[in-house]
Hints:
Layout: H1 3-12, H2 20-45, H3 70-98, H4 105-130, H5 135-159, E1 166-168, H6 172-198, H7 214-241, H8 247-269, H9 274-296, E2 299-301, H10 302-305
Amino acid sequence: MSAASTDQVKVSKSPGLPSRALRIFAWASFVLNTLIIATGGAVRLTGSGLGCSEWPLCTPGSLVPTAEMGVHGLIEFGNRTISGPLLLVAILVVVLTWKIRAERRDLMVLSWIVLGLVLLQAFVGGVIVWEELKAVLVGFHYTVSLIIVCITAAYLSRMYEVGGPRESAAPKGFKILAHVTTLVMAVLIFMGVLTTGSGPHSGDENVVRQGFDATLLSHLHAWPGYVAFALVAVLVGWAVSKHLRAARWAVTLLLVLVVQIAVGIYQSRHGLPPVLVGVHMVLASLAAATMTVTVLRLKKPVAEGA
């Protein structure tokens, strides 16, 4: 038996290895939390933010949209419907992770955080309807969803590793650069949220927007995007040349940013077509998730080195 095969056998017998069911539901959690960003974007971009005028009911006396609500009611209710399976999956991940909590405290903590944030999102969604789509609340809602996507991505990343102590897997300079890049990415996303909140897609034609100059914000949003791209390019060159553990994910992040920048430039020059704005929102969450996994690759399990 080869050394690689021996290592694989050792890992497969490691205590705390997630079950197949847990792996399936962990992936489902990531996919559903990404999907709800897409459907939430569809609600906003089609002006369906008040398609259901009440919460938790859709209309007074009706849980589902009525004919009078038209297509906007269907779009908003469709987004709400995803919340049910999303919450159920989050609960199942917690329950299944509980079985290996002694060996995988890291996964247990992450699963509880996801469940807590999903419950928070349900409440915030209701407040947004009650407050008639206040831009600051809508921006907060999106940001929390993006954070959940990052945490579910972190869960997936750690799920395929053995538990226990971790040790450095990158030079100090590389780690500093990765954390600086993370900060720039956070600024980029924050400016994107402000830009969208001040643009034409507010969720309903009667909703008051942020009040900032959307054109100026679009430029302020673009600058950290170019800085992030340059920093990630340096990370890729460094990681690939030194065969670092983070190399594959750094390359993936660079590719996502290339697509994201291309979509951003195109949409800004063609009047912000709703479909591309939605794609831009989803790509932002995937870029943030990829950045999260890249940072996690700065360390490795001590058992892996052994």
